[in-house]
Amino acid sequence: MELEKKLTEIRLDHASRQEATHSSSSETYIKIQRQYATLLKKGCFCSAKELETNTGIGPSEELIQDSYALCLRRGYLGEAIELYRRFGVKPSEELIRGHYTAQKRNSRKGTLRIVFEKMDIETELLES
């Protein structure tokens, strides 16, 4: 009986420590993602990559896609390529199609085609 009581206490203590660690790591993750949001919004991809190297935590997929949208909307095509080079994540298909269609209307699809080709994106699919 005494042994079972001790085991229960040990399990509860372990569970509470795990919960505290999880809570702490969640807060850390959120703080790091906020730092990424600031860096990516400013176009500081080098600093963002350094943050990833130092923390071992990369930017969320959502932040990267938001950064692509911002780059493409503003016409910062070089920054979009740099974002791909740094993190290796391609823009979403929806984002690619939307911007390609908009550029097609503006007769600037050739420039965007070159950018997407540098990101290894099949531009033939965009014509359909």
Report what the structure shows.
The structure is a single chain. The protein is mostly helical. The chain has one domain. It has six helices and no strands. The longest helix is centred in the first third of the chain and has 41 residues. About 4% of the residues have low confidence.
Order of helices and strands: HHHHHH
Number of domains: 1
The profile of the biggest β sheet is: none
Radius of gyration: 22 Å
The secondary-structure class comes to: mainly alpha
Total of DSSP H or I helical runs spanning 4+ residues? 6
Q: Indicate the proportion of strand residues.
A: under 5%
**Mean of all residue-level pLDDT scores:** 77
Question: Which regions are unreliable across 5 or more consecutive residues at pLDDT < 50?
Answer: 18-22
What is the helical fraction, as a range of percent?
over 70%
Shape: elongated
- Give the total of beta strands: 0
Distance between the termini: 72 Å
Please write out the topology.
Layout: H1 2-42, H2 45-55, H3 61-74, H4 77-87, H5 93-105, H6 109-118
Quick overview:
With 128 residues, this protein is an all-alpha fold.
